Amino acid sequence: MPILELSAADQTLIASGDTALLDIYAALPPGLYPPFPPVELPGGLSGLLQRGGFAQNFFFAGEILGVTFQAPSGRLVRAGGRVVKNVQGYDLTRLFVGSFGQLGEAVTVTLRLRPGVAARQVARPGSLGAGLGHRARFIWEAQGKLHLMHFGHAREVEAALAKFGGEEVSAPADYRPLFPDGIGPGEGGPLRDLRFGWANGAAPPVAPALFSKVAAAL
Amino acid sequence: MPILELSAADQTLIASGDTALLDIYAALPPGLYPPFPPVELPGGLSGLLQRGGFAQNFFFAGEILGVTFQAPSGRLVRAGGRVVKNVQGYDLTRLFVGSFGQLGEAVTVTLRLRPGVAARQVARPGSLGAGLGHRARFIWEAQGKLHLMHFGHAREVEAALAKFGGEEVSAPADYRPLFPDGIGPGEGGPLRDLRFGWANGAAPPVAPALFSKVAAAL
Prior knowledge:
Chains A, B: It holds the Pfam family DUF5639. With 218 residues, the first copy, chain A, is an alpha+beta fold. Chain A has helices spanning 21-27, 44-50, 93-96, 154-161, 209-217; strands at residues 3-7, 12-16, 32-33, 39-40, 64-70, 76-80, 105-112, 114-115, 118-125, 138-142, 145-152, 167-168, 173-174, 183-185, 191-193, 197-200.
C-alpha cells in the first residue's frame, strides 16, 4: 500500500506519487475528501499533478501543500510541506502542478483534505458547455455523460446538485482503459473537464521556453 | 492613476505593480473586493505579492491570476493571465507570490476579484493566538488591536464576525508610517497576521539555494 501518512487531525495526507487515486479514496476515513473525484486515471497521483488535476471547479494547486519530485537532472526537490496556509514563501510547489512532466515525477505529495458530512455524485446524458452554472466541486464529461460530484454539509450538497437531475453514481469509475497510449489534453477524447478535453495518446501542451529554462535549472 | 483595467464582468483587475492598495479599493465598484483588506502597506501591489499577501485567511496565491515581472536579469517575464481556472499549466505566477524580491518587481498584476453584497470590519483589543476560530476572510493584529474583515452575503458576514464583539472600523488604515525602513517578517513589530509578525526594517527570510537558482534562470 503506497500511502505513507494520513493525519485526520491536520486534514492532510502524504502519499507516494505512484499511489492510485482510488487507493486514496479507499484509505480515507469517512468525512474527509481529496481534491479529485472518485475516478482512476493513468499515472496515479503524480500523473494527476503533472496534468494540473482533473474535474476541479476550484483552484487545484492550492490544495497541494507540498511535493517532493525528482527533477530531470536527477535532483530530488522538496517543495512546500504540511502547512495549510503557504506560510513559507519561496514556493516551488505550484511549479510542479501542471508541469506535464517537464519537472519530472512526483515522489511524495502532501494533499490538503477537506471535510464533508455528505457526498453525492450524479450523472445524466449531456456535455460540458456554456452556461453550466453548477457549483459542484467536481464537474466532468465522460463518454457522453455529464457528472457532478460534491461533498460538504448536506444542504450545500443538495444546493450544488439542484436542478441537475440525473441518477446517482455510487461505484468509482476506472478510466485508465480509455487511455492505452497515455492521457493528454486534446479534442475528440472520451473525457472532458472545465480545462481540457482529454484524449488517448495526446501530447502535452508545448511548454514556454522560459518554463523549460526553469525546469533545466532544477 | 496607475490602475490599468477593470473588468467587472470577469471579476478581474489588472493594475500596475506600483498601485497603492487603497487606490485599488477606491477604484472598485460596490460589491467587488480584492484579496487584501482595506489597508495601505509599503510597496503597493508589487510589495504585497512579494511578501505573499497580508492578513488573508485563504490561499492568497490562488487569487493572483497573472503577473508580469522584471526579473533581476532584466528580462520581462509574463506569467499567467486573466483566466480564473489556471487552465494553462506551466505556471510561473505562483513562483512570484512570496518571492520576497528574489524574482524582481511586479510590473503588472492580474487580480481575481470576489463579490460581496455586504462587508464589515471590526476591531477590539486583543492579539492573534491559538484557538482563534474565526472564519473571517481577513484577520490581523495592529498595534494591540485585533481586526476582522469579511465580505459576502449578509448572513455570511454576520456569521464570520459573530461573537467577536469589537467596534466597527470604517476608515481605511495607512500602515506605511510604521515601516520607515521597510517591512519584513519579524517579531516585535506593530503588525501581525496568521503567517508572520511584520517588523520595521526586518530582512526577508533566507531563500533556499534552489529557489535562488531558479530565480537566476529567469
